[in-house]
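Two entries, shown back to back:
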Amino acid sequence: MGIIDRFEEEYLSVSSARASVRELLELLVGAVLFVVGASALAYHLLGQQIAIWVAGGLVVIFAITLVSQAYWAVTGREDYEE
């Protein structure tokens, strides 16, 4: 079994399992910390206006990710089962 096969197998096992509330909360907390850290760094290096754009873009990306994960947590991922 090659490395690509192992990555694919691990991806499928993680993706096919339903996310728990704890995992969704961990994702939320991680997203908030990432947005705060990235915007603070952007503010320090590039200024306030760029930091606002960075924070806004990341919030949109993480919101889509959280909604997607919550949807799959409710419905499951039977389409990945072989």
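entry 2 starts here
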Amino acid sequence: MMTMTDEQNTETQNTEAHCSELQALRDQIDRLDEQLLQALAQRAQLVDEVGRYKKARGLEPLDMKRWQQVLQAKKARAQQLGLCPEFVDALYHLIHDYSLHLESKSE
């Protein structure tokens, strides 16, 4: 027969195990978030280069045809990966808006 102390110890151990599992999952998310940020930083550097290239050749920052192709491809890939295409659409609109801002500042 378990005493109250035994039950409390078991409950504490279960809670600690859950916390440990949860922390391990959060650590994995944190590592992925860092990779996302690193990728966004690399992307921003490339966008700056694209901006300078376009500016030097008198090209407009926005190529609507390419933008539509990229957006459709990303949404299709999102669906293949089990992601919500509307989420990816919104995310890429944010990324694209920021990219246009960076391109416009490129010298």
